[in-house]
Protein: Glyoxalase-like domain protein
Organism: Mariniflexile soesokkakense
Amino acid sequence: MNTYGSGGALVHMEGFSAGANSTIVYFASEDCSLEEARIETAGGSVFKPKMSIGEYGFIVLATDTEGNMIGIHSMK
């Protein structure tokens, strides 16, 4: 079944206060470790390498070339 649109969630993350650059956009991926391997060669930096978020899969947190925090999510 294909689904379209965007999802969202509000979560508290230690070390981040509200405001400024506190919104993180997550991009869906088949396996976020594949994109993680490309981040530094594209000019960004890995903030948190692939980590489990339990039954919700895995995420990678990175900083893009403009300093924005982005997330990559996958189920494997």
Q: What stands out?
A: The two ends are 18 Å apart (CA to CA).
